[in-house]
Records
---
Amino acid sequence: MLTSRSWIAVEGTLVSIDYPGASFFHFPEAVAQLQSPMWTGDRRGGGRGHGVILGVSVIFEERLGGWREIARRAVARAARLPGVSRIVSVNLAVPEPNPAKGVGVTGINKRPVDHLVTVRAPGPKTTGLHSGLVGDQIFDIEHHGGDDQAVYAYAREDYDWWQARLSRRLANGLFGENLTTEAVDVNGAVIGERWRIGPQLVLQPTFGRIPCVTFQRKMGEPRWVKTFARANRPGAYLRVLEPGEVWAGDPVTVEDRPAHGVTIAQAFRAYMSEPELLPKLVEVDGLPDDLRETLAERLVQRR
């Protein structure tokens, strides 16, 4: 099989790309901006191409009309510019037994995948598609999934914080999140703000993750539910405003932030331990309707 090598400059750094079949791609010897690389795609060939970009091995999968976008994302992922908000990994469920609940099976065990994943609104919690990510699985449909919990995001920085306190390695996806982020203030996200991920996908934070017995069993830590709640690092559930595809390395941009200013961490604290904050929380736009009803009932009980 023929092997071709081309060179491309990314943010002033010259990198090489090796790939089978010279007809698949031509990367011109020119400076390419990271957001809009200067290359042309030519699908006269077929199959898969292999690239090495900034020392990162990349597989280019054949997709109709998708060569250009996949290559652009590969360059962005390989560059990993410091301080740029991005998706570190996209994680899908690997089902495992769950003796902690009557359902018997859980999808909390998420593993990173290395390909584009389609994200769309899954519909109602119990009757829809459950997860927002195609290929993901949710089994406890009474408590998880649905439009307001379509996607779960957790920050790599919070994983690192937990690692230091638990003295153990915590892999991406262990907490059951679909998206592991970097340089994204997940807990500081304002409920109802808009995250653009990659060129098409738009998500909206709705609330924090409430720990359950399945999570405690998965972690194997004593009193984990209380420990997790007390730390106030819940991560964020998100609804899908505009469908799209996501891949590790995709940039994350906050496009709009509501003026009410109530964050995921503040709302989680109000729900879990500071009921005096509930009156403000129940009025927040973007809160899930069923959660708003629960909070309203709590307020009535406190009077």
---
Amino acid sequence: MTNDMEALQAELAAVRQELEDLRLQFPDALLEGDLATERVLYMNRLACQVFRCSAEDVQDLTAKDIFAEGDYERAQMETRERLTRGYAEGGGTRYVRSTQQDLREFNMRRKDGTIFPAETQSVFVADSFGHPRRIRTLVRDITARKELEARLEEMSVRDPLTGCFNRRYIDKRRAELEQDGAHWACLLFDLTGFKAINDTYGHAEGDRVLVAFAHFLLRLHRSEDILVRLGGDEFALFVRTLVEEEGRAVADRVIEAAQQGSPAAFNFGVAVRMAGEDVSRALSRADQMMYEAKGHSLHSKRD
């Protein structure tokens, strides 16, 4: 009997060691925390690498240490909500684990203070009475994925030829631009005789002219202004203004700059946003002014 018990204990110890080795070598960052104290109880090897800490550092960490400010409070709230739902499904006396995959995103903090975006997946570990006591979480550093998403998003709102923003970007900013207190002026441009350039010299030369003109406009705009290629040879510059005179001053600056060194002749119109006016209406007024200026193109005096 004694030998059987010893053999069983040895087998149990071997299984525990195997599980511990598996947990340590798990291919994702794995950590466990105490729900009551919020202390971090365990990090596997990859988790220590992700959070840039040693195994000895783990015992001094709490949830507040590993979540970025703001996200710590959100993690607390979402954990409480999950517990409340689980107990509600168990009639209030026992916790019932959700069958849904619990994937969430947080900004997390490494031991050196740097912040990184993470995807987490957590489960509660219950005691013998079925009450959750610990939380076990997989953490994946998704910095590379977020950077790729940001690059793709940037590409989606940029004109690939000139690097200016496109119409989709204006749609994204429309709510902001159309707020009651938003003050801006819209300058609308189109190139004179652009079709003739394409027909005479080819589309490669036409593209070169468009890029040069975009660079000309970029030199005139401030960091908070928005330069958009609306399509073809038409561009719009949205300039933040506090008073109407600022919009007119920008228009004067365009005229002066055009005389000094515009790469192509162009027409332009300007509309200072009126109270309650939407983007489309302001563009329409600028377009009307530009139409009325046809035949009076601006160009460099050096041409």
---
Amino acid sequence: MRVKIASLLSRCTGSHQYSAVAVISHANFDGLLGIAHMQKSFLFVRTPDKHFIISRLTRVSRVRVPQTTRASSVPCLGWFFGSGLVARKDLQIVQSGERTNAAGKPVSNLLLLSLSDNEYRALRPHLEYVSLPNHLILHEAGGKLEFAYFPNRGLISLVVVMKDGKTVEAGIVGNEGFTGTPAAVGLKRSSLQAVVQITGDGFRVEVGALQKTLESAPRLQLILGRYAAVRSIQVAQTAACNRLHEIEQRLARWLLMTQDRVDSGSLAITHDFLATMLGTDRPSVSLAAGVLQRKKLIEYARGSVRIINRKKLEDSACECYGVIRQYDGELGLKYPK
């Protein structure tokens, strides 16, 4: 039978504000039935052992459900880790500076600005303002997570650390995100080291307080879960990039991703740092930077890189930048021209 979306949503929410729905089987993806007429949303699917993003969707006008499914049995919507009927409400972002923590420090982190007023008020007493100086380690790989960090400014690198001390970057976090994503789903440790690479500031929340707030904050669950899913795409794409693409392409991709998050044409970084982040040696980075500089895409001075032709730098980057940018855009990240 075919069930109108409006009637299903009314049972759960009393409103018609959700833009995409689908009926999902608990068993596997074979239970995904008859999605049609879609626009601007993500479909989140739960299976017994994992959670996935399936695809970008558009407006869904109707869904097909099995004869055995009753509308009254469909769970209420808005919970990222719910089962059965799964939907996403379009996220609205408050303007930067319109919110503060209890001490009056302004908030620029996009996740915190995306919360509903009620949920932000619940989290606000736990937001501790912190400076994030260059090279500060926020948590060690394999160590216990004590805080989740929500940057206002600056850049945090998520780094894989090997037994011999060698490191390679797996992802980066700016004001679009937060560190300590495992804590948002009840885990106590992270396999990645989080280290500040460009000085900034932001807020930290004790993991226990965050997890307690999540128990009664469905929108916060949705937002953090959504970010964690998008971040996992970034990590996977970065791993493929570091393995398969040339150093010039990887350097271009990294510079673009960094500029997206720090909103500045001048990046305070060294060749030694770039070598660590890209999993290569300093001479290789120097050669790659020299190539980009000769093409008049960047200017490099001691301890600083300035992007002077972003469009051509995008052309020099590998396909990975486009893939990561596509999903970053779902988080409200705005890109330099």
---
Amino acid sequence: MFHFIVSLLFIVVFNDICFGAGWNPSNFSFNPGDNYELVWQDEFENVGPVRAIINGQPAYAPNPKNWVHIVGHNNESLQNFTDSIQNAYVQNGKLKIVAFKEGYTSGMLQSYNLQEFTFGTFAAKIRLPYGQGIVAAWWLLGNGDKYKLWWPTVGEIDILEMVGGNTRTNLTDQYAHATVHWNNQSNTMNPMYNKQLQFTWGTPDGSKLHDNSLVYWVEWTATNIRMGINEFNYFQLNTTSMPDSINPVTAFTGKWPFFMLLDISIGGIWALPPDNTTVWPQEMVVDWVRVYQQKKTIIGK
């Protein structure tokens, strides 16, 4: 999600178009595997008092035990992230992050210092926004604060980024991008260079990602990062031998935990500004967020 440092970028495009005829996301049920167990989840139940009436129904703040707002401008994008209930709220068992044309306001939530995990499978079921200038993201960032280390040295795992629109190759409403960022020159803040590896996936039937609620997931272990959408695994990285880097790269070894972020941004170098085709407001609708970790083996069992 961070793009403000000049980066060395390698991109692979992956499209399961040959499976389009048989793809039915409504039948999909996410299973991380028999060796994993659920350790945390947010099913977006109502917590605390009603904060507003939105579209005729009560709206609640996201659970403060799980999420805090990031406010202000971010990177080179146009949006102004706020803590307004209008930009991020819970309603009818779902989290809604909403971007508005007026003032280009939007919401960004993070689980920093609240819900952080070392290794595991992180998954979220999301219906994405769409349209020119709209960027949706579900991502992880390392918390190396106690080592006085920050981005990109702490590592970043972009489970999902969607760059909306319909005019540029692979940057349309049909494509998701999975990216890993790290410092490929040192495990300190000097020297520092943002190396990134990105894979891109297109819907098998050419539909918009907005058309279905899909599960976007990452499995992070001591040796690998795998990312995918529903049943498709389209990103894999061996973190013990990072490309064009000093090795080992500390970011993904489990030395520090990672926290979760969800947001809609607007415009910027990658997305370009909204135009007269952009529909407002735009929503990211999250059914649930879950974290699974490998089951502990009990000796003698």
